Amino acid sequence: MNIGSKIRDLRVQKSLTQEELANRTELSKSFISQLERDLTSPSIATLQDILQSLGTNLADFFNETCEEQVVFSKDDYFEKTDPELKNKIEWIIPNAQKNMMEPILMTLEAGGSCFPDNPHEGEEFGYILSGSLTLHLGAHSYRVKKGESFYFTPDKKHYISTKSGATLIWVSSPPSF
């Protein structure tokens, strides 16, 4: 592990100059510079002081666990096609059902629909990327077209349908897909 580069990364994240970090830790700017270039090593006490000034501690600083994936590509998506309902659903954040919300990319063929969903707790949001659809919410129907979005609390039976085809992003919290 390169302690110096990790300290430099933390300092930059906190928008501090070497001089500002040196002042906060009562060290010299040249010591901070040498430390960040791995030309010198700090004592444990000095390292603790530096880390405290950067808002962390020894345990977190030396924790080498892999960070959770943040960016996902098409190769990461999980896809399900339903020829009967003429739709394709892509979970664009894999394993999102464990999260507070679950965004999906949905493509409806002409004449397609999305499975009916019974009333439940939470919130639902959609953004139409292409085409248009009808949002059926209880006894009401709403036309939604490209560039428009919808949001509702799913306390009524709901589903979407299209005559011409549509692609949309749908976010459900908590996950219900």
Describe this structure in words.
About 25% of the residues lie in helices and about 30% in strands. It contains five helices and eight strands. The protein is elongated, with a radius of gyration of 25 Å. The longest helix is centred in the first third of the chain and has 11 residues, at about 5-15. With about 180 residues, the protein is of the alpha+beta class. It starts with a helix and ends with a strand. Strands 1, 2, 3, 4, 5, 6, 7 and 8 form an eight-stranded antiparallel beta sheet that branches.
Number of strands: 8
Based on helices, strands and strand pairing, what is the structural class?
alpha+beta
* Uncertain regions spanning at least 5 consecutive residues: none
| Share in β-strands | 25-35%
Termini separation comes to 42 Å
Characterize the overall form. Answer: elongated
The secondary-structure element order is: HHHHHEEEEEEEE
**What is the number of helical segments per DSSP (H or I, 4+ residues)?**
5
Task: Please outline the major beta sheet.
Answer: 8 strands, antiparallel
Main features:
alpha+beta, 8 strands, 8-stranded antiparallel β-sheet, 177 residues, single chain, 31% strand, 23% helix, elongated
